[in-house]
Amino acid sequence: MFAYEFMRNAYAAAGIVAVVAAMVGYFLVLRGQTFAGHALSHVGFSGAAGAALIGLAPLQGMLAAALAGGVCIGLLGEKLAQRDVAIGIALSFSLGLGLLFLHFYTSNATQTTALLFGNVLAVSAHRVHVLLWLGLACLAGLALISRPLLFASLQPELAQAKGVSLRLYASLFMAVAALATVLSTQVVGVLLVFSLMVGPPAAAQRLTHRVGSGLALSAALALASAWLGIALAYWTDWPCSFWITTLSCVAYLAATVRRRPAP
After folding, report:
1. Running along the chain, 263 residues long, what does each successive block of 10 average in pLDDT?
2. Angle 247-221-12 (CA atoms, 0-180°, nearest 5)?
């Protein structure tokens, strides 16, 4: 299996994306912002399709649109809290806008499928290096804001009283989440981004109360889902995204059955 370059690239890309998605996803689940995070992937999709339409690289368009969407969500803050209907409408509008762009950009139907469902087996060595640098930037950003972000997530009133700007850290975190979302779509696509950003972190939080061990467990579960999913796809000739989402779902269901004891 590892004799093929595309398999080595797939494992490297999936490993980078799984760790980053699990770390950022842990805070998304902790803050109850998984739906907003999912919306970022759809906003990024419209950006990628628009970039392809005007001749730019889809990854550039996806990054720009997702970052802009993430910062907007962070700045709106409480105004978007409990506004699932507004986020859902924005999400579906972004997906529709992306499909419109692709309607005019019909020269590459394969690219459309890759954006929607991911195609980790098509990741090139150059793309792996891009993902590595983006992943390191994402983790560095998360590390810089992790302490005040955790404080603001667990005790927002007390954090605000202590001078922590909830809006500032919400905006910075959503920008990091947007970057992680773009990375995740390279493996599982826009429609299945929940599988790496929500499944493993949610499973980890059901198994442990400690933040450090929760982050480590989340990363381990995401890494296992991604790498085992690629191996199963190789042996069965079924889509990688199917196996990765299935394993992520199994991990969450198993964690639900074996739930952590009450603190």
Report:
1. 85 90 90 78 79 78 82 68 63 75 66 67 84 90 91 85 84 86 74 78 90 92 92 89 88 81 55
2. 90
Indicate the SS3 state at residue 75.
helix
Q: Which of 203, 201, 226 is nearest to 27 (CA)?
A: 201
**Nearest Cα to 171, choosing from 259, 239, 75, 242?**
75
Burial call 222-251: b when 16+ CB within 10 Å, e when fewer: bbebbbebbebbbeeeebbbbbbbebbeeb
Residue with tokens 């590892």: 2
CB atoms inside a 10 Å sphere around CB 76? 17
Whose CA is closest to 199, among 50, 18, 15? 18
pTM of the full predicted structure? 0.82
- Residue from 199, 180, 174, 23 nearest 87 by CA: 174
**Where on the phi/psi map is residue 55: left (φ > 0), alpha (ψ -120 to 50), or beta?**
left
